[in-house]
Write the structure tokens for this entry.
Amino acid sequence: MIVVAMLFCIIIAGCKQNSTARTSTDNDIKFDTIVINEKYYLLGDTTNPYCTLEASLLFPSEDKDKEILAHFIYSLFGEEATFTTPEEVVNEYVQKYIADYKELEADFISEVETTGEKPSQESWFAYYEALSNDVVYNKNKLLSYTVSVEYYTGGAHGGQGHNNHVIDLETNYKLDEDDIFVENYHDELSKIIVDAIASDNSISNPSELENMGFFNIKEIYPNNNFYIDEDGITYTFNEYEIAAKFVGKVDVSIPYERISYLIREDSPIAPLVFTKK
């Protein structure tokens, strides 16, 4: 007998701050956590391959923070997401993930008919996705958070992505590099980033990074994918962006003291930077 197995669990828990030590409630933003644990077996048969969708997601929980909530929804689910409640958006996302996975069922049936064997549950049909976000700074009218996803959708291996966001709560505007750095910062910041990567790898000559799986170091530039905290700016370069896959994600943390001369004095992060001098 075929057993339909769709396990769908969304758990909502109130929290005043995220579990990471760097998070603060100084901006008086409260968060709820939505936890997803979803599994669907092809053709509803628990002996078949299946997809897994897991998530632990923070959302601002009070009506006064609806503008901030919009940033969280769009950064997690894209600009095409319907801006309703977090619960409704998450439910829509789960249902779409399952519907997209069900499109593999015709290929699964075809493979069984062709080979006479059922693919194992560890075959390329076994999709998964793990989605999360994390607040890393929440003070001084600035809110910085990260969004991370790991996934497998067939092929030789899975993938991952990590995107950072800094929100100026005075304007509800997502900050980019031009909001922070002085004009003509690009080349100087590029050199600082490369030097920091070399230092993190205990290398005195940055060109040696190219022997460790990094691509042309002259093509490593600021990529606008950064977060801020008490101590400095951290850039994230995702896999394949500046290095081979085996190197993985590269995080580059730069203390404010190192880049203070590149920071605009009217930048929203200026109070963090110039008090560090």
The two ends are 71 Å apart (CA to CA). Helices lie at 66-77, 86-102, 105-115, 177-180, 186-200, 256-259, 270-274. Residues 8 and 236 are 33 Å apart (CA to CA). Residues 1-8, 15-25 have pLDDT under 50 and may be disordered.
